Amino acid sequence: MTKRYKNSFSSSLIIAITSLMMLFSISVLYSCGANIFSVEDDVKLGQDIDKEIRANPRDFPILKGNQKVKDYVSSLGREILNKSSLIKYKDVFPYKFEVINDTIVNAFCTPGGFIYVYTGLIKFLDNEASLAGVIGHEIAHAEKRHMTQRITSYYGVSAVLSLVLGGNPNTAANIAANLFVGLGFLANSRSDETESDNMSIRYLMSTKWYPGSIMFFFDKIREEQRRLGTTPGGLDRLLSTHPLPQDRIDNAKEQLKKLNINPDPTKGLYVEEYQKIKSLLP
Fold first, then answer.
1. In this structure, are residues 186 and 108 in contact, taking their beta carbons and an 8 Å threshold?
2. Is 152 exposed, middle or buried (0-12, 13-18, 19+ CB in 10 A)?
3. Distance in angstroms between the alpha carbons of the first and the last residue of the chain
4. The pLDDT of residue 32 is above 60
5. CA distance 88 to 254
6. Active-site residues: which are they?
7. In this structure, are residues 30 and 153 in contact, taking their beta carbons and an 8 Å threshold?
């Protein structure tokens, strides 16, 4: 074996071993809940996904006009961001709030704090505090960076590592373009949902709204299921991406009890203001 060949072989072996060690280390980290994306990667990916959403009005019809409704939704999100000291990425993530004009009862968040609320959800809820609770829940998904964790799991460490290191720039476009196929990336785990519920309650403790207002959302869903004897079609998308098992509801109740929050259903709801906004919806 020539010296040049030996050196080449040794270099290739070192690179291969190093790559395997990196992949193994990242796999271990991810299994422990770590995220190989940086917060800057979250922002860039969220921007790419937002472009895909806006380029697809058939599936994601952004609300046109009705600036008062759009400003209202944004103001709720901004109030939570400005008042809660628990939101660590408020000066890193751009945090954009958009309204999608569709009967679907849902809201979702993509990396970097891009949050989308359906008009179907606004119509479904009865008070401002409930919508604030849902928005707080979506902010928590961004802050805990749940989506980039799921993307890592879905694509595998190798593909995501290639994206993060800049070796395959097409991967980002592929993720954005295929994001909503089957809603796979939007399907939160039960642990993600529980964590986001807990954080939403804590975020709202610093605001004018009743901190446990997300419970009104849960109650409304259960009420509709009991009334119709099944899950209404408009809630299918919601429950496929935000599962609502009984232990999630029990956990939220336990959090309210632990934080000693008075479950007064008459304070901090802002019903009249909310009904005025609902009346403006198409």
1. yes
2. buried
3. 77
4. no
5. 25
6. 138
7. yes
The 3-state DSSP class for residue 117 equals strand
Cα 247–chain centre separation: 20
Mean pLDDT value of segment 171-190: 63
Q: Strand pairing of 114-118 and 107-110?
A: antiparallel
User: What tokens does 242 get?
Assistant: 């935000």
With bands split at pLDDT 50, 70 and 90, how would you rate the model's confidence at 22? very low
Q: How many residues does the chain have?
A: 282
Decide: pTM greater than 0.70: yes
User: Are the C-beta atoms of 185 and 154 separated by less than 8 Å?
Assistant: yes
Q: Which of 221, 146, 223 is CA-nearest to residue 190?
A: 146
Q: Examine the pLDDT at 34 and tell me if it is beyond 80.
A: no
Which residue is associated with the tokens 């992949």?
23
Q: Using CA atoms, how far apart are residues 243 and 239, in angstroms rounded to an integer?
A: 5
Q: How far apart are CA 162 and CA 164, in angstroms?
A: 6
Ordered DSSP codes for the chain: --HHHHHHHHHHHHHHHHHHHHHHHHHHHHHTT--SS-HHHHHHHHHHHHHHHHT-TTTS-BPPS-HHHHHHHHHHHHHHHHH-TT-TTTTTS--EEEEE-SS---EEEETTTEEEEEHHHHHH--SHHHHHHHHHHHHHHHHTTHHHHHHHHHH-HHHHHHHHTTS-THHHHHHHHTTTGGGGGG---HHHHHHHHHHHHHHHTTSSS-TTTHHHHHHHHHHHHHHHSS--HHHHHHHHHS---HHHHHHHHHHHHHTT----TTSS--HHHHHHHHTT--
- For 124-129, what is the mean pLDDT? 97
Structure tokens at 205: 């403790």
